[in-house]
Fold this sequence. Notes:
By secondary structure, this protein is α/β, with parallel strands linked by helices. The chain has helices at about 15-25, 40-45, 50-60, 65-85, 150, 170-180, 200-210, 305-320, 350-355, 370-375, 400-415, 420-425, 435-440, and strands at about 1-10, 30-35, 90-95, 100-105, 105-110, 115-125, 130, 140, 145, 160-165, 185-190, 215-220, 225-230, 235-240, 245, 250, 255, 290, 335, 340-345, 360-365, 380-385, 390-400. The chain folds into 3 domains: about 1-130 and about 255-325, FAD/NAD(P)-binding domain; about 140-255, FAD/NAD(P)-binding domain (3-Layer(bba) Sandwich), CATH 3.50.50.60; about 335-440, FAD/NAD-linked reductase, C-terminal dimerisation domain (Enolase-like, domain 1), CATH 3.30.390.30. The strands form 5 sheets. Strands 1, 2, 3, 4, 5, 6 and 18 form a 7-stranded mixed β-sheet that branches. It has a 5-stranded parallel β-sheet with strand order 9-16-10-11-12. The protein has a 5-stranded antiparallel β-sheet with strand order 19-20-23-22-21, with helices on both faces. Helix 1 (about 15-25) runs parallel beside helix 8 (about 305-320), helix 3 (about 50-60) runs antiparallel to helix 4 and helix 3 (about 50-60) packs parallel to helix 6 (about 170-180). The radius of gyration is 23 Å and the shape is globular. It starts with a strand and ends with a helix. The model has no long low-confidence stretch (mean pLDDT about 95). Bound molecules: flavin-adenine dinucleotide (FAD) and nicotinamide-adenine-dinucleotide. Flavin-adenine dinucleotide binds near residues 33, 98 and 258. It comes from Jeotgalicoccus halotolerans. Belongs to the class-I pyridine nucleotide-disulfide oxidoreductase family. Its cofactor is FAD.
Amino acid sequence: xxxxxxxxxxxxxxxxxxxxxxxxxxxxxxxxxxxxxxxxxxxxxxxxxxxxxxxxxxxxxxxxxxxxxxxxxxxxxxxxxxxxxxxxxxxxxxxxxxxxxxxxxxxxxxxxxxxxxxxxxxxxxxxxxxxxxxxxxxxxxxxxxxxxxxxxxxxxxxxxxxxxxxxxxxxxxxxxxxxxxxxxxxxxxxxxxxxxxxxxxxxxxxxxxxxxxxxxxxxxxxxxxxxxxxxxxxxxxxxxxxxxxxxxxxxxxxxxxxxxxxxxxxxxxxxxxxxxxxxxxxxxxxxxxxxxxxxxxxxxxxxxxxxxxxxxxxxxxxxxxxxxxxxxxxxxxxxxxxxxxxxxxxxxxxxxxxxxxxxxxxxxxxxxxxxxxxxxxxxxxxxxxxxxxxxxxxxxxxxxxxxxxxxxxxxxxxxxxxxxxxxxxxxxxxxxxxxxxxxxxx
Length: 442
Ligand SMILES: Cc1cc2nc3c(=O)[nH]c(=O)nc-3n(C[C@H](O)[C@H](O)[C@H](O)COP(=O)(O)OP(=O)(O)OC[C@H]3O[C@@H](n4cnc5c(N)ncnc54)[C@H](O)[C@@H]3O)c2cc1C
Ligand SMILES: NC(=O)c1ccc[n+]([C@@H]2O[C@H](COP(=O)([O-])OP(=O)(O)OC[C@H]3O[C@@H](n4cnc5c(N)ncnc54)[C@H](O)[C@@H]3O)[C@@H](O)[C@H]2O)c1
């Protein structure tokens, strides 16, 4: 049995960051990854990078197959770079195999050819990510015309007609992307509208723009049954009995923590009701020497929150542990629609419910000089502030470059910079950020 100072299970964002850090501190580290096509994790291989690349190429008029080929090249390059960033370190060993816990301190690694090896460590870090969660449906769910986000982006032939089940992040981003490539896209949404938790004005703008771009929404229905009709057609039966036939179905119905087969029953690690690994404020599990980082625990499922999980663990191991899960504030996000939508903080209604003296301002992007240069007049920016204290409470940006601008808003909120500072700041010109002069004029 080989003993390590640390074993990290999964080559995800937090796992690889921690592996590099620990090896740099002279810890003997084992990083175990079950799939050679996943070095670098979900983001690089099957998620953020390939989907945003395909979106970029779709919106710039590329042909689908050429974009998929370019995506494959970029992913391979990044995967290789990621592998070497750990495998080439003196104190780190990358194991190709599936990790299974035998006890709180021992892991069995099973490689492709069935060879098994037991490793032990003082500290173990679980970073196994999440997998697509497909609701229990009747019918031909194993059909080759049923896709997840992972399999659809590898398909080289563009489906003429695509049905997307689910109107969350993946549903709306894939609808935007495949519609731009030229597919006829329908999105099945169980609620009576998309983005229920978002500001109503912004939600209405996004829905209007997506509809105008040609995306069809079927609201208030669930997918209940799937039936393969022919070699090229597949039908989804909805809860109202209506049928929707297309050439491909994408399930974008959420992602669940990847704990299956990890052997957690052999440890003192407990799961939450949602099936995620239960952690405390320092991401320590119910076994003192085992930590969980990234999508495998409940909560946010983003690459940057996974990276931030690494910071929490690092602070706990080597510093005062002051930076913990609860001290993480103002988690922002971007949905890469066209244009993208980004948010941090509260809506006006939420702010009032929390008792703030809140007010808001909104600014249509058609009134911004840069929009005319960009030839993109769609979009709406909104800001919510506390008029008593000057605190920025929420920023909701639907428009070009919102994925960048939101970081500026988050920075201001994290550091308690009053909204008047963003209002009175001198920005260069003509750029999107100068919108803040007007947006924060509340
Ligand atoms: C289509 C899509 C688009 C997305 N777009 C964005 C985006 O634009 N921005 C953003 O911030 N987030 C995005 N996300 C979310 C983001 O990809 C994830 O939150 C993030 O990658 C999770 O990283 P992680 O650190 O939890 O681990 P992961 O990167 O998921 O890594 C887990 C690794 O563990 C391995 N593994 C699993 N079980 C075992 C085992 N038993 N033994 C050994 N290895 C194992 C897996 O093979 C995998 O490589 C997207 C997700 C999807 C699906
Ligand atoms: N830009 C980004 O940062 C980005 C992009 C993609 C994914 N992600 C991450 O990946 C996670 C997973 O994304 P997702 O879109 O799969 O999940 P999601 O939770 O955002 O959306 C899932 C949707 O599926 C619907 N649904 C469930 N069962 C259904 C059924 N039978 N019929 C019709 N609809 C059904 C749900 O109502 C929900 O709206 C996200 O939570 C996000 O953290 C992030």
